[in-house]
Amino acid sequence: MRDLAHRLLTYEDAAGKTSEPVEASTLRVYEKLRHGLGEFVGIAGFQLLASRALTLARPDIPSLSAVRITEDGSLQGLGAIENQFDIEKDQANEGGIILIARLLGLLRLFLGEALTLSLLRNTWPGEALDDRNSGNGRTA
Questions:
Q1: Which residues constitute the domain of residue 23?
Q2: Are 94 and 5 in contact, with CB atoms under 8 Å apart?
Q3: What is the pTM (predicted TM-score) of this model?
């Protein structure tokens, strides 16, 4: 899931083609997941999955303690990580990868790999989800 999360963030970063901060690609991936999967599992279902993913990611990236999941499943506080904790761009990127990987891992756990990948392909048709590493059995 980590490799898949990294590919999605890299794809969104390249698609943005701006000088936006690192968290912008994480927010774009997260929002696409929220909107696409929210239709499938509902707002409350996505909010619960996202909250659990954030809880699982925090031990790896303690600066994620500044991040919150709102009632509608939105992500708040990700932009404050770099400023508040004075961390480097690579650490902020790592936090985004881990958070998205944890969320994808939970989706795979509850929905199964085939359905998760199908939902992701609907959200990112084309090159973001090639089949090179999607079935390699790695977990988040």
A1: 2-121
A2: no
A3: 0.80
The answer to whether residue 110 is domain-embedded is yes
Q: Domain for residue 75, yes or no?
A: yes
Q: Is residue 27 part of a domain?
A: yes
Residue 122 phi/psi, 5-degree rounding, is: -70, -35
Number of domains making up the chain: 1
Cα 19 to its chain centre, rounded Å, is 20
Question: Tens-digit pLDDT profile for the chain (140 aa)?
Answer: 899 998 998 888 777 665 555 557 888 899 999 998 888 889 999 999 999 999 999 999 888 888 999 999 999 987 665 554 444 555 667 888 999 999 999 999 988 999 988 888 888 887 666 555 444 444 33
Q: What is the DSSP secondary-structure string of 66-98?
A: G-EE-TTS-EESTTHHHHHHT--HHHHHHHHHH
Do the domain assignments include residue 130?
A: no
